[in-house]
Amino acid sequence: METLSPTMWGALLLVLEAVGVVLVSIGAAATFVRIFGLANIPVLESVRPYTLIGFGLALVIIPACTAESGAIGHTRAVKRSDAQVERTGHLEQGATISEEYLQIDLRHRKQIGPVGYFGGELSESYWFIRKVINVVQPGKTEVHFRHATSGYAIEPIDMPGAYRWRIVDPGEQEILSPFVDLLRGVKGFKELLAREGKMRTYYMTVPITSKGQEIVYKLRYYNAFQGPTFEWMGRSYTEDTQLTEIRIHFPDNKPYQALEAYKRTATMPKTPIGAPEIEESPDHLELKWIIRNAKKGEDFFLKWSW
């Protein structure tokens, strides 16, 4: 017998979930009828309601737990890989940046529906990062770049020659989603909400050789940007940065409709930016956002509807 594909697993578990809901409903109806004697319904009187409810709950719980555990489909390999990543606490960046370039490619993104969720399917998006070191703190021999996601995981690809990739311990997650209040009740964000809006955080560590050193790498984000009506990206500055250029490529079938830019500091809540330096393509499939002279402790966010 061939191994089931993620889609087939997803369809099977979704059907079991639906059957479980039906059995629980029938069992509850039978219990209600028997307790209050409201009607003479032979079908309901002939069933064993508690058996139905118990079996139905099992059919509801088992598929849900299977999906959450990442035991099948593409999530299994990513979850195993993430479990092997070295853990760490907070790390200071260690150097200021003269210029950085972030390219976010959403063109491989796909919406994960119920079948995909139960089947352990994953959506992929890519970040290309280029940074130029400016001033290095005395005694520092390496620099730590922080990355976070509200999605499933981040995986390093196309890395510099010498690097370390670490994940922040779950109890020390330190970045809070600025739009978590808008995600409450939205399917697909259960894990983020269970973490009270704290995003899964990683550090890329690279040795520093000199001022002007260029560091280039690429990251794969899993199940990021899954918001059905809006999404966002952010840049949290752990050291001063003179110039940031952010380019975002949107899927051909999902151009952005409207943009909102925000800034937040330790003493100022998330506040709209009146005139962000953004260049937009006519088809709304690409944009460029320039951030100048960002300071340590400042956070910038770009939210879009689509």
Describe the structure.
With 306 residues, the chain is an alpha+beta fold. The chain has two domains: 6-69; 83-305, Immunoglobulin-like, CATH 2.60.40. It is 25% helix and 35% strand. The chain contains six helices and 15 strands. The chain has helices at 6-36, 42-46, 49-69, 73-83, 114-118, 190-194, and strands spanning 86-88, 95-105, 124-136, 142-149, 153-157, 164-168, 200-207, 214-222, 230-236, 241-249, 258-264, 271-272, 277-280, 286-294, 299-305. A seven-stranded mixed β-sheet has the order 5-8-3-2-10-14-13. A four-stranded mixed β-sheet has the order 1-6-7-4, with no helix packed on it. A hairpin with a 6-residue loop joins strand 11 and strand 12 (271-272). The chain is elongated and about 85 Å long. The two termini are 42 Å apart. The mean pLDDT is 87.
Oligomeric state of the chains present here: single chain
Head-to-tail CA distance between termini: 42 Å
CATH level-3 fold name of the largest domain = Immunoglobulin-like
Q: SSE order, as H and E? A: HHHHEEHEEEEHEEEEEEEEE
Number of domains as seen in the coordinates: 2
Number of helices: 6
Residue-averaged pLDDT: 87
The appropriate CATH architecture of the largest domain is Sandwich
Derived from helix and strand composition plus strand pairing, the structural class reads alpha+beta
**Which residue ranges are poorly predicted, with pLDDT under 50 across at least 5 consecutive positions?**
none
For the CA atoms, what is the radius of gyration?
A: 24 Å
Q: Tell me the number of strands.
A: 15
Strand order of the largest sheet: 5-8-3-2-10-14-13
How much of the residues is beta strand, in percent?
25-35%
The percent of residues in helical segments reads 25-40%
Name of the CATH class of the largest domain:
Mainly Beta
The major sheet is characterized as:
7 strands, mixed
Indicate the overall shape.
elongated
